[in-house]
Amino acid sequence: MAVYRNDEKRFKRDFDYLVKAARENKELAERYTYIAKRILTSKKIKLIGEEKFLICRSCNKLLMPGVNCRVRLKQGFLTYKCLNCGNVRKVKYDKRI
Known about the structure:
Elements: H1 5-22, H2 26-43, E1 69-74, E2 77-82, E3 88-92
Antiparallel strand pairs: 1-2, 2-3
């Protein structure tokens, strides 16, 4: 099944809405994240940039820095730690920038 450009654009717009709605209501955010994750896998849409780190890979919850996610800069890595399940993701960055 091919992914159409309209589907991908529509999903990206809806994903932005998901992030905004999550700040207001946690229960809705969890449901929307579950739906978004299923759409991502079924349509084979890839998230880019910062969007990749907004969903925890182990517990599938929306990560909001300062609320349920801890972000640290340490030894050339940017680490995202989920406070729900404890999963840690590391991204290498250039210290010179």
